[in-house]
Amino acid sequence: DFIKHCMSLYNTRFSDPDGMRRSVLRAEVLFHFFRHEWPRFDFLPELSKICCPTLVLGGEEDPTTPIEDQEDIAAAIRPDLVQFHRFPDCGHGAYRDCPDQAIPMIRDFILRSWQEPTS
């Protein structure tokens, strides 16, 4: 029922209608995660330990990680290492919902991070 009723809420647009068909879904893994792992799935206190450039792309329509949580994630990472971008009308995957904006951003981030050493 989760897949049937909730999966369509993850993204605001589907650029690849065959994407789910090509995906491997293991219901037992999904249900184990939601029953046992998700309630303890909070890495926020550990994010301050990140010591490399980090890109956070936040979809304002994300039902899984609300934009306020994504702002908290970005705020928990050293300011000199994090880049945070909000995407209006995007769900859980900004690169899927807004590829024209997100993909160049990701590409530039990777190229810049590859060339600039961190301290």
* Number of helical elements: 6
Q: Helix and strand string, N-terminal first?
A: HHHEHEHH
| Class by alpha and beta content | mainly alpha
CATH class equals Alpha Beta
CATH level-two architecture: 3-Layer(aba) Sandwich
- Full CATH superfamily name: Alpha/Beta hydrolase fold, catalytic domain
Rg from alpha-carbon coordinates: 16 Å
Can you walk through the features of this model?
- This is AB hydrolase-1 domain-containing protein.
- InterPro entries: AB_hydrolase_1 (IPR000073), AB_hydrolase_fold (IPR029058).
- It comes from marine sediment metagenome.
- The protein has 119 residues and is mainly α.
- The protein has one domain (2-115): Alpha/Beta hydrolase fold, catalytic domain (Rossmann fold).
- Helices cover 43% and strands 10% of the residues.
- It contains six helices and two strands; from the N terminus they run αααβαβαα.
- It has a two-stranded parallel ribbon with strand order 1-2.
- The longest helix is centred in the last third of the chain and has 17 residues, at 99-115.
- The model has no long low-confidence stretch (mean pLDDT 84).
